[in-house]
Amino acid sequence: MTLEPLTLFIHLSSVSIWVGGMFFAYVCLRPAALEVLEPPQRLRLWGAVFGRFFTWVWGAVAMILGSGLARLVEMGFAHAPIHWHLMLLLGLIMMAIFAHVYFAPYGALKRAVAVEDWKAGGAALNRIRQLVGLNLVLAGVTIAVATLGRWLI
């Protein structure tokens, strides 16, 4: 019996959580927070939002990596299509960016909010915004590779 349906479900569900959450935060929540909240409230909001969202992202990253590697092992790395290898590379880059966001600017944001250093908090939030934007672009490329790769590569 193949695990393909289960691993594909886990993979796509986890991608939906991570990428959908980034899209919502970047395209919907950020502009709304800029419109209606002053910097101290906005930075507190983002600290709370990221605290919850990043817990889900860690789980999603584990599921994406585990399910993707399971598919590669089942198929055999040498027999897997080239676009699967490209998806793995792009996914690993995205995961490294997320880990950097979590351990560097997010940590700085939490520390800044704790001591009410709004300037430092704003700088940390801006860095997170830039890296989330980069990860959204990489996610779009990865989705294109996943869906169109067999015809384009």
UniProtKB/TrEMBL annotation:
Q: Which GO terms describe its cellular component?
A: membrane
Q: Which Pfam families match?
A: CopD
Q: Which residues form the Copper resistance protein D domain?
A: 48-147
The name this protein carries in UniProt is Copper resistance protein D domain-containing protein
Q: Which organism is it from?
A: Denitratisoma oestradiolicum
Q: What is the lineage of its organism?
A: Bacteria, Pseudomonadati, Pseudomonadota, Betaproteobacteria, Nitrosomonadales
